[in-house]
Amino acid sequence: MFEYHGWVNIRETAGLDDDEGRLRSRVEDVRRLLAELGEYGLLDLRWLNGFPFLHVAGVPNHRGEWGTRIIDLFRRIGEIAPGSFGLLYVWDDEDAEHPNAFRVFRLVRGTVTEHADSLLSPLVPTVEDAAQG
Asked: So which domain of life are we looking at (predicted)?
């Protein structure tokens, strides 16, 4: 199983004041990325209190192409709108190195980095009981 949950605060720059016209253009670029992805799970881009936010979530059976594309989506948003920031939590039980752990992809200042999770990992026994018998 490949489970993911994430959010991004889309910002043109890391400065305090984004140019509204350029920010709207960047958001439309992100909308085009979402359209290219297709429809699966939660892909919700909306303006809240004057700011654009993206929320994603899903649970495909395997990482496959979709999982790779979701992680790449964060990287591409960082290129389009380098002031954006957010987190993507991923659990991939087929990951040879981390089958029992969530991984966190952090988007900050246009760069995505991968980190260990200490809040929900290890999945067993933190979230789930060990298999019996």
From this structure: Bacteria
Give CA–CA dist 121/92, Å, rounded: 12
Q: Residues for the chain: how many in total?
A: 133
Tokens representing residue 67 in the block: 């999982």
Percent of the chain past pLDDT 70, that is, above it, reads: 100
Dig out the tokens for 125 from the structure: 């026994």
**Fold adopted by 2-126:** Alpha-Beta Plaits (3.30.70)
Tokens standing for residue 114: 């991968």
Q: What are phi and psi of 44, to 5 degrees?
A: -125, 110
The confidence band for 19, taking pLDDT boundaries of 50, 70 and 90, is confident
Confidence of residue 59 (pLDDT cuts 50, 70, 90): very high
Contact 58, 41 (CB under 8 A): yes
Strand, helix or coil for residue 40: coil
Contacts of 82 (CB under 8 A, 6+ apart): 12, 13, 14, 109, 110
Which residue matches tokens 């929900």? 120
* pLDDT value for 18: 74
